[in-house]
Amino acid sequence: MEERLQKIISRAGVASRRKAEEMIAAGRVTVDGVTVREPGTKADVAVACIAVDGKPLPEEEGRVYFLLNKPKGYISTVSDERGRRTVIDLLPVKKAHVYPVGRLDQNTEGLLLLTNDGTLTQGLLHPRFLVRKTYRAKVAGELTPKALKKLRGGLELADGMTAPAEVRVYGTTDQGLVDVEITLHEGRNRQVRRMFEAVGCDVRALKRTRFAQLTLDGLKRGACRPLTKAEIASLYSLVEER
Ligand code: URA
């Protein structure tokens, strides 16, 4: 998300907005190594390296973005008073204020983003931006044409109607479970499990395979990797006001 440089500099705690404007005019500010003097110049902190007197802004240095392949058994919180394992235990660095972007149930595995970028987190979780999440489920029960129609078209849950979803049935497993993929544009609590319950099915295994354009490609269960600058920029582009 592009913002005015003076706003970014003041939020980073380097100087007030007025002082930051003076710094820009004095040629003390660079964006990706290029001196910027134009008042009102905008930049995107997620992708640009902004420096004052040659020093990168502290806020930029401190931002982290991880894509985790969460195994079952970990809870999606930062700490747990009952001492259960949390997704934070799986990160390579321990940094304050890094939170999961939404939640996966303890028994759900798969793709989870974690970051200390509150602006991006808020955007990605906001229903207005319709960020796509894809899950692969193994469900017990019969997925009749009527059930599929309801799942796809919207059905009534305790917290209201669900939005249209994409559902694709892959077949039946050796255990007699239906192997099905579902893509949602919302992210309510336990939504996939509750949707299948509403059509008389029981989710026995659940994995998130995709979040926006991100997938688990090349990432083993329990492993995580930092997002690339291009991936961060692309997530930001999804949640910018249109
Ligand atoms: N829907 C669920 O039911 N559980 C999850 O963990 C994620 C989506």
What radius of gyration results from the CA coordinates? 21 Å
Ends distance = 11 Å
**Which H/E pattern describes the elements?**
EHHEEEEEHEEEHEHEEEEHEEEH
Q: In one word, what is the shape?
A: elongated
CATH architecture of the largest domain: 2-Layer Sandwich
Low-confidence stretches: none
| Portion in helices | 10-25%
Sheet-strand content, in percent, reads 25-35%
Mean pLDDT over all positions: 92
Given this structure, which CATH class of the largest domain is correct? Alpha Beta
Question: Which fold name is given in CATH as the topology of the largest domain?
Answer: Alpha-Beta Plaits
Bound molecules: uracil
Q: Give the domain tally.
A: 3
By DSSP, the count of extended strands is 17
List the helices and strands and how they pair.
Blueprint: E1 2-4, H1 5-11, H2 17-25, E2 29-31, E3 34-35, E4 42-44, E5 50-52, E6 55-56, H3 58-62, E7 65-70, E8 99-100, E9 108-115, H4 118-125, E10 133-140, H5 145-153, E11 156-157, E12 160-161, E13 166-172, E14 178-184, H6 191-198, E15 202-211, E16 214-215, E17 224-226, H7 229-239
Parallel strand pairs: 9-15
Antiparallel strand pairs: 1-4, 2-3, 2-5, 5-6, 7-9, 7-17, 8-9, 10-14, 10-15, 11-12, 13-14, 15-16
Helix pairs in contact: 1-2
List keywords for this structure.
7 helices, 30% strand, Alpha-Beta Plaits, 242 residues, 9-stranded mixed beta sheet, 4-stranded antiparallel beta sheet, Structural Genomics Hypothetical 15.5 Kd Protein In mrcA-pckA Intergenic Region, Chain A, 24% helix
